[in-house]
Amino acid sequence: MNISQIYPKPHPQTAGRVIDGEAVLILADSSEIQVLNPVGSRIFELADGQRSIADISQIIAQEYDVAPANARADVLEFLQQLVDKNVMVFVESSP
Amino acid sequence: MTVTTQLNQRILLNIAGFVVALETSDETIAHRITDRYQQFLDAGAATAPHFTISIQAAPGALFVPIQPGNWVIESGYDNHLVTYRSYRERGQIDVRSGFGQLEMAPTADIENFLRVAYAWLCVHHNALLLHAGGLLRHADNCGYVFFGPSGAGKTTSTGLSTARGTILSDDLVIIRCHDGHCTLHGVPFRGELADAPRANQQAPLKGIFRLRQDAAHFVKPLPRTVAVAELAAASPFVVGNPHLNDQLIAVCHHIARHTPIQELHFKKDDGFWDAIDEYFTNLP
Question: I need a labelling partner for B266 at 20 to 30 A (CA). Which of A42, B181, B213, B221 fits?
């Protein structure tokens, strides 16, 4: 996977809002409600379909002062989990 | 030649300031509605109805096969249409025109249709139909809300509070917010306290409590994010609809910004009111 060319964005069934640094998500398909932790919420906030996974990883590495390689691995794993749960989708080119 | 004209009866319901006009030529249906919602009839609503529903009697109607299990209520919202279907009632509302139709067996109940209609009205007017118990406390003339999923203790907590105030509901309440203040409204919808009066009253909302059954009474902070999520989860008929969820979160967030929402751990006696009073006494 070329993370510079993958642009994650919320799945159409997902409604979300960041409140006090944490994202509240409602998943329409299952009526499930989730609250993400602050790091996850920041990633969700950044994943707007305009930034690639590489862009998001770079921002997370800078904001949380972690090694770029670790940030890339963690961001990718987290986003993949959200994709698996139909919270996010991966788009292969920026709109 | 004899011409018989059936005149439509027009019944105006006013629940939490939201007016719904119900029109029907069926006397049985009209009588049942006026009897059941007596406290919420509005003979001369000053404002135009939000919705006008034409009710057609459909003797013997069965829109959903009756099967064992949970009571079936199908509702949705798409393309400006609120849709509803249950065993003996079926209807829809075009929210652009404000007009809708409901077919129902004369002996069927309109209440679930109204719940769906009011859930939609609320979320589009910065209000919330919440699965909760509500009390208008006489000591301070303020409204208190107790919520949580089925089994959390809504009926228990409101039942233990009868000496302290007027129970607005043990099942559903409406919260409306305006200019940074939230108001608790009674609704005619009832849960297990079927014999309780259907109080058409309102009060400034003082606090909202997420119920947790426990061995002791205490109030525990609830992070605002979790409070918003819990409120959204307790909003029947609108949570989960992809066209309504953004607005639902916005409404819940608005309420959470203007009203304390805490977790109330309680056991089965009214001592939890001491915990509530202690919480507000210590509130900065």
Answer: B181
